[in-house]
Amino acid sequence: MASESAAINVEQTAEVNEWSDCPYIDPGWLENTNGERLTKQGIDTRFPTPACVFWSYQDHPQATVIVRDMPTVEDARAAVDWAAPIDATEPASFAGWEGGRGIVNEQAVYAVQKDTHAVLVWSNQQQTFKSEQIAQEAIANLGL
Length: 144
Hints:
This protein is α+β, with helices and mostly antiparallel strands and about 140 residues long. It has helices at about 1-10, 25-35, 75-85, 130-140, and strands at about 40-45, 50-55, 65-70, 90-95, 95-105, 105-115, 115-125. It starts with a helix and ends with a helix.
C-alpha cells in the first residue's frame, strides 16, 4: 500500500505535487491566523492525509502542515521529535495531545501526537502560538 510507505519514514517532509487547496485548513482562516496574505497553496498527496503548504510573497512557505497516521505510537512520537527536537523545544500539550513547541531553523514549530496520529506545523512567524492555532484547527477539522 503506497500510503504505508510514506508513514514509515518519520522524517518525510512536505513536497507539493498538486496545486490545490488544503482540504482541512480554510485559506482565509490561515491568512488571519498567521497574519500574512496567502498568495498560493499546494498539497503533498504522498501522505494519506495530504500535507498542506501555504505561501505569501516570500520564496519560502509561510506555513506547512503535515498530518501523519503512523503505524505505532512510537513512530508518531518519533515524527514529533524530528519536527520539534526535545533539546531545542519546550513541551506542548492540549486535550491529550503531547509534543513540543519552539523556534527551530528560524521557524516556529508546534508538533504534537496522540495515539498513532502526529500533527506537525511550521510557521515563518516567530510565534509558536500561531503554529499551535494552525495545529489545533487541523486536528478539529479532521476530527482527530
